[in-house]
Amino acid sequence: MEFSIKSGSPEKQRVACVLVGVFESRKLTFAADLLDRISNGFLSDVLKRGDMDGKLGTTLVLHNVPHTLCDRVMLVGLGRERDFREKEYREAVRSSVRALAQTAAVEAVSYLTELTLKKRDVEWMIEQATVATLDVLYKFEQYKSRKPDETPQRERELRKLVLSVPRRSDLADGEKGLVQGQAIGAGIRLARDLGNTPGNVCTPTWLAEQARVAVEAAGGLCQVLEQDDIAALGMGAFLAVARGSAEPPRFIILQHRGGDEHDRPVVLVGKGVTFDSGGISLKPGESMDEMKYDMMGAGTVIGAFVAAARMKLPINIVALVPTCENMPAGNACKPGDIVTSLSGQTIEILNTDAEGRLILCDALTYAARFEPEVIVDVATLTGACIIALGHVATGLFSNQDSLARDLIAAGDEVGDRAWHMPLWEDYQEQLKSPFADMANIGGRPAGSVTAACFLSRFVKPYDWAHLDIAGTAWKSGKEKGATGRPVSLLAQFLRDRADLATGQTVRRGRPRRDPVEVVSDDDAD
Predict the structure, then answer these.
(1) Residue 127 domain-assigned?
(2) Which of 249, 290, 296, 363 could form a Cys-Cys staple with 242, CB 3.0–4.6 A?
(3) Does the pLDDT at position 477 exceed 80?
(4) 460 part of the active site
(5) Is 119 one of the annotated active-site residues of the chain?
(6) Is there a single domain that holds both residue 105 and residue 141?
(7) What domain of life (predicted)?
């Protein structure tokens, strides 16, 4: 998919399709109004006939619009003007790209990126449009017998999208937004590809190799520790989970050295259980195939790391990924077993299906070696988080409220929302064990909270946050597949940390000027 940024009048575009917006009141946007004027009211007449009402997400493709040079004009519904915000903007972009993919147009120019949003500038508009477009066009067809390149419709798929900016003076900001959007989009795609790959292919060894290839291509460093190395470190909790599988575990260490060598890094930790059967505490058979997504914490951490490396952020970043399978076997860990973690703390395993926290606790302890500025772990950790928040928001826990606020603000900036959950000392009581320092579960009440409480015991004295993505990492049903969340949130968080590290004010989309009545005479290709 090829993107470009241009400034030009819509009626002069010699392309297969021009995309413009219409509000629910049938009010035309600036670009749509220009087309309406040049075509002697052609668009207004169509709207008056009732073929489109401007509701958010609706589209209408018009052919042979008088006095224009394009083959098609697509009208995109924006909803009510007074309600048009960031969420509506993203939905309008997504719906326009979905509709565009149903046409034979191989190239298009979108004027949706010229819309006005309070406190949002050209750079933000272009970046978000790029990420949304790449997300909509994502396909995972590697395991279909008929290759995508062999299908007839491949010849008429969208290949080029021009994103328009209001003025020539906006071109530099637009290009910057495009570069950032492509980096984040690539990180999301990588995370989705890793998650959607079946468990018989996506083993810990394969995941480690994919991480190495992607990270080194982005300019980062990758080290992979094997089973003997993990054992030598003393990661007893991690190895207990891996014990029942024929696939050996791996511990992936990624580094981006964008800051000064003495700068403390941001450490990301991702749960990488490439298949979770539940172990001896076997899961029900229904939907167990979706347990290939239990490595999406790892997938999103790797994806966010790659995005940050591609953006060349001026900070130091470390990503740690413990990866293994959780399988039942004669040598698998059992309920009642007691293991010793890397921290020296002992854990009574009451449920082998609470395995994510066991591999994470050793990785979190290992993170202290880097003397991190902050630690953020990401994991499909608890079904209880789905009960609490559904599939809308990621659960956020932290031992530092200011860190939680930073993560929530980053998610709000890019539409990848998280919700701050409690981490009070009262909940720690549920993890008491008569035989070990702690149990690995705290019972049914507040399951996502007690899981976070467990992890909190391995991060002292660092600022730490935990993102439970069990409800947001993938979708079931007809849209089944990895979502790539929360790559966008993590990437924005890292950009915010980079702004702080370089003494800049954290950027939240500067207000843009109102559109003027004159546009460039440049034609887009």
Answers:
(1) yes
(2) 249
(3) yes
(4) no
(5) no
(6) yes
(7) Bacteria
